[in-house]
């Protein structure tokens, strides 16, 4: 299906519009066209099942980047209550690409942090398209420390193509901001659950991506480099991105196989953008289940397990240990 | 003038200094003249060697190999390499990766892009890891991450400083996919524990230090040093250019740029590095060799 996935999505959109049109006619004209509607909906379902059973890593990348996909603030509204946004890094600015604040997940207070891409042109500008600047990472760390002070768990929702690479971000230490977050998340004395909800874009993702559990939505991607960048560097041809997506193994299943992700959260048929509510419900179920477990664990044990979980990652031959590492 | 004759002999090579890999002083054949890629003056190889591979005319710092770096900084004969046996595999079956590894092993004589172990600096014990640009741009895959992590863990266990030196232009090694990205987490985790134990981490950034390494251990020194002129940054040039809306300053992503913006403690001439690091270690109260039980460090 490679290459035709976008056409497929367009065709499906037209089919959906046709179904809606027939439904509207039914109401307006009072004619019973339920058989026709049922047939069209069955056709839609067959198409979805067929295509979603055979997604290439590049298709997955396009789904993860779909501008209709739920973003952080959608999840905040669908999953949590009493969210109060807290802003600023207390050093320089507030970064619109990173959002955070306390919220309730059922009866449990948590600190939610995560990247927010924009919905329309003005919002995308305000959110810097979800490319976080140093201020964003520093704000996130400040909020995590606030959570630690009051012994509240941290929930981090990752969705970024990459961290911001502008001159300004370089001047204000984007590398340092990410590195410090990664280090200090290993020292944070409250449970952390990370969920990759859209794009897990390399260091930009990892800067809020260290946790006791790392979950990943079924159609999210997680990669060391965007496929276009990989193709440009290795093959001098960004158009070979689909090939690079496959070589990099960007899918949730691969991330799970490599041990970088603990659990894949299922999405409804046709991915999260077709049914935000079901996606949010699935994510909430997973978050609550893991929170129950982590909140029962003594904090020193938690930190040891968090360390060990990442310590194990990597593949190499170690002749001194009778086998591979 | 002799200079003119040699310049003519060297041919019409007028490419700018950053247009491709820098000259490597390690490859200088005996008794030859070397053209400085910065000032384009001709230098006598032996004189360049004596000057620690720094241009005697303009101060340009040629890249060193990891081995040369260790010889330059540590007490003679004190370096003991660790984890030399760890070998890279091709975990993703990434196209051409296995051949590329082979080629770089052959070309550099190194087993991977980092040399790690323990040693002494003016009698003070430390563990260290040095990434080497000549091996796949010094990029960090599983073996590089594991060796660095073990070097830091050993330092934590024994209670000594760790010195991490970056010559990593390649960031996290894309041929190992997410496993390479996870080395950023792994090395930072080890540094978190080392930091928590109240121990000193010194980071030295050399040409080039970019991307994934900068967004992890390369930025996590208590003291951050760099060599003059070193290219240091978050995003490689290609990525960076795409993201630029405003004009890039002339010194963008140099050691001096980061010093001016408060991201580095000091830009240090090669000849002064050893003294500078030794002083910082004394300030931190690093144990001297006699205070450490030898077997602890050797087997750690």
Please give a structural write-up.
The complex is a heterodimer of chains A (325) and B (300). With 325 residues, chain A is α/β, with parallel strands linked by helices. Chain A has 2 domains: 50 residues; 249 residues, Alpha-Beta Complex (2-enoyl-CoA Hydratase, Chain A, domain 1), CATH 3.90.226.10. In chain A, 50% of the residues lie in helices and 15% in strands. Chain A is built from 14 helices and 9 strands. In chain A, the strands form 2 sheets. In chain A, strands 1, 2, 3, 4, 5, 6 and 7 form a 7-stranded mixed beta sheet that branches. In chain A, helix 9 links the parallel strand 4 and strand 5. Chain A is globular. Chain B is α/β, with parallel strands linked by helices and 300 residues long. Chain B has 2 domains: 49 residues, no CATH class; 234 residues, Alpha-Beta Complex (2-enoyl-CoA Hydratase, Chain A, domain 1), CATH 3.90.226. In chain B, the strands form 3 sheets. Chain B has a 7-stranded mixed beta sheet with strand order 3-5-6-7-8-10-12, sandwiched between helices. In chain B, helix 5 runs parallel beside helix 6. Chain B is globular and about 50 Å long. The N terminus of chain B is likely disordered. Classes of the chains: A alpha/beta (325), B alpha/beta (300). At the A-B interface, helix 7, helix 8, helix 9, helix 10 and helix 14 of A face strand 4, helix 5, helix 6 and helix 7 of B. Strand 8 of chain A pairs antiparallel with strand 4 of chain B, so a sheet runs across the interface.
